[in-house]
Write a structure and sequence with these properties.
Layout: H1 3-9, H2 14-21, H3 25-32, H4 40-49, H5 56-69
Helix pairs in contact: 2-3
C-alpha cells in the first residue's frame, strides 16, 4: 500500500502522519509524492507506524514510478 492510500484510509492529514513518524510535514510530503526515498531509520518508522501496511518496497515503487514519469531524469 502506498503512503497516500494509507493516510486517506485512516483519515489522517499529512501533518498528523508526519508527526507520528517523527518527520516534518514537508519531508513527509516528499516521501508521499515519491520525490524522496526515506533514510533507512525513517523507513523503519513508517513500516512500524503503519503496522506494516506500507513497506519499504512500496516506498521504492513510488519513487521509481515518479522517476519514470519524469522521463528518468531522477535517480531511482
Amino acid at each position: 500500500m502506498d503512503l497516500i492510500t494509507y493516510r486517506r484510509t485512516h483519515k489522517l492529514t499529512q501533518e498528523a502522519l508526519a508527526d507520528r513518524i517523527g518527520v516534518s510535514q514537508p519531508a513527509y510530503a516528499r516521501y508521499e509524492a515519491g520525490q524522496r526515498v526515506p533514510r533507512p531509520a525513517i523507513m523503519a518508522r513508517i513500516v512500524q507506524v503503519t503496522g506494516g501496511a506500507v513497506t519499504e518496497a512500496d516506498m521504492y515503487r513510488a519513487h521509481v514510478a515518479r522517476a519514470a514519469a519524469a522521463g528518468g531524469k531522477e535517480a531511482a
